[in-house]
Amino acid sequence: MIEINGLCKSFDGYQALNNMNIKVQSGSIYGLIGTNGAGKTTVIRHMAGIIKADAGEVLFDGENVWDNEGVKQRIGLIPDELYFPNNSAPDDMRRFYSSVYRNWDDSKYRHIMDLFKLDPHKKVGTFSKGMKKQVAFALAMAKNPDYLILDEPIDGLDPIVRKIVWRLIVDDVAEKEMSVLVSSHNLKEMEGICDYIGIVDHGEMKLERELDLLKGRIHKVQVSFGKDGLPPEINDNLNIIHRDTRGSVELLIIANSMQTIEETIGSRNPVLFDILPLSLEEIFIYELGGESDEISKLIL
Amino acid sequence: MFQLDLTSPKSIYEQVIDNMKELIVTGVMPEGSRLPSVRELSKDLTVNPNTIQKAYRELEREGFIYTASGRGTFVADVSVIKPDDAKIQNVEKEILGGFRSLIYLGLSFDEAKKIVETIINTEERSKRND
């Protein structure tokens, strides 16, 4: 389990993190979502033990990461800005990693490099941005980490490579209960992969949710009762959190179960009654309290 | 095995359950056949293994599958499962919706009725031949 408790950090008077709390259970994949500058990378750099918090702590199974080599042995990290020593090839990195990390798995490294079809003897400097990321991923996974921390991992990767990356990650989560924290500004990419999502803004946690519970709680409904308009009982009996009227057609966002909605509306003979799919982005917007520009900007 | 629909109002968890039930009830996966492991299916669908695990637990609770420790998860005898009333009602509504759609297309009541009867008769014949 990874616990981040009351993390605060300011840089030259700018409050980058303000009492940030995150909990990632073992075998869970946590998605950290936020705009550029929201504080995602700062959180990750604290988790990696690279920068020291003003207040608060980052614990990995109860152990503080700061200045703790034993914990860092078990962390796999892909930072947003990759660094490879000058003139090094992936195989040079492999030699370095295998000398430093006790759980290094050479066959896993080769397997992933083969999947990516990367030449381990070519200089990393000649690789494209996406290829460098793939090398970093192969190195991080071959460390056999208990905790994997990924900063915008799929940025710059093509769809096929993305699929391979996610597959390898879910496999390790299933096999050895690896805990994963992955940051992204793209909520859509997180669906299916993450079981928890946290949305950060201005260094604060705005909303944390378990993804499986999100869908099914809010529904988008298109309904019309002709020229009579919406019967008042519908307004009274359903929790309508957003209403948009276009002519005689009403677009409603309702926070009730599908069954309640069907019974309440269906029994009053609507002329038109459709339940429309609601994207994960829309769900978050309404969960965060409506369609304000500020909130939309956080997610879309 | 099956595909997930990220645009669906159903959560991935529900979709895994529904797809599995369909495979079991239609006999694509007969009684006693082995389900893919959580790890295999999560890799296959690129979905969080916890979601698959939860779906399997629910399928087991409802009696569709059982776990034999150390050997895996298998399809149970589903003929003994009592269907849920609420779900029957839902399907009734779908059938009604389908019937109404035929009438919206411009068919008379009798023409629509005939189509439904033909479907049922065909279904009955294929069932008898099994």
Q: CATH architecture of the largest domain in chain B, please?
A: Orthogonal Bundle
Total individual domains of chain A: 2
Poorly predicted spans of chain A:
none
Write down the secondary-structure element order of chain A: EEEHEEHEHHHEHEEEHEHEEHEHH
CATH topology of the largest domain in chain B: Arc Repressor Mutant, subunit A
Q: Helices and strands of chain A: which structural class?
A: alpha/beta
Helix and strand run of chain B: HHHEEHH
* Distinct helical segment count of chain A: 11
The percent of residues in helical segments of chain A reads: 25-40%
Largest sheet of chain A: 6 strands, mixed
Q: Radius of gyration of chain A in whole Å, from Cα?
A: 23 Å
β-strand percent of chain A reads 25-35%
Q: Quick one: biggest sheet of chain B?
A: 2 strands, antiparallel
Q: Which protein chains make the most extensive interface, counting residues with beta carbons within 8 Å of the other chain's beta carbons?
A: A-B, 34 and 24 residues
Please report the total strand number of chain B as a whole number: 2
Distance between the termini of chain B: 24 Å
Q: Tell me what the CATH architecture of the largest domain in chain A is.
A: 3-Layer(aba) Sandwich
User: What is the CATH topology of the largest domain in chain A?
Assistant: Rossmann fold
Rg from Cα of chain B? 18 Å
Helix content of chain B: 55-70%
Task: Explain this structure.
The complex is a heterodimer of chains A (300) and B (130). Chain A is an alpha/beta fold. Helices cover 33% and strands 29% of the residues of chain A. Chain A has helices at 40-47, 69-72, 90-100, 106-116, 129-142, 159-176, 211-214, 232-237, 258-266, 280-287, 293-299; strands spanning 2-11, 14-24, 29-33, 55-60, 63-64, 75-78, 147-151, 179-184, 196-201, 204-210, 219-224, 240-246, 249-254, 272-276. Chain A is elongated. The model of chain A has no long low-confidence stretch (mean pLDDT 89). Chain B is mainly alpha-helical and 130 residues long. Chain B has two domains: 12-80, Winged helix-like DNA-binding domain superfamily/Winged helix DNA-binding domain (Arc Repressor Mutant, subunit A, Orthogonal Bundle), CATH 1.10.10; 85-129. Chain B contains five helices and two strands, in the order H-H-H-E-E-H-H. A two-stranded antiparallel ribbon of chain B has the order 1-2. The mean pLDDT of chain B is 89. The interface between A and B is medium-sized, with 34 and 24 residues.
